[in-house]
Design goal:
3 strands; 3-stranded parallel sheet; alpha/beta
Length: about 90
């Protein structure tokens, strides 16, 4: 899967949701110069972690998400709760 222009990716600081994101699609052939780290590390490190000057060539930040099961579960739960709140849900037995 390749969705982003290689030149764009190569000039960005890259933050990923999982380590596996580094090995797929858009990031597979990217150089290591722009890799900042995982989203959790960036959040834990605060603004200075993300915005510190890793290279003068980097003038954008790219977040690459390949998704994880927990993201899917949390999203599904939020949709179900909202549907119930709006009264548009249907319960059925499997």
């Amino acid at each position: 899967m390749h969705e982003l222009d290689f030149d764009l990716v190569s000039r960005c600081k890259v933050v990923m949701d999982t380590k596996e994101a580094r090995d797929v699609g858009d990031l597979r052939n990217a150089n290591d110069n722009g890799f900042v780290g995982l989203l959790g590390d960036v959040i834990a490190g605060g603004d200075e972690f993300l915005w510190s000057d890793y290279s003068t060539e980097l003038n954008c930040t790219l977040f690459k998400s390949v998704g994880t099961v927990i993201q899917d579960i949390i999203t599904a739960d939020a949709v179900i709760r909202k549907a119930r709140e709006l009264g548009v849900s249907t319960n059925f037995d499997f």
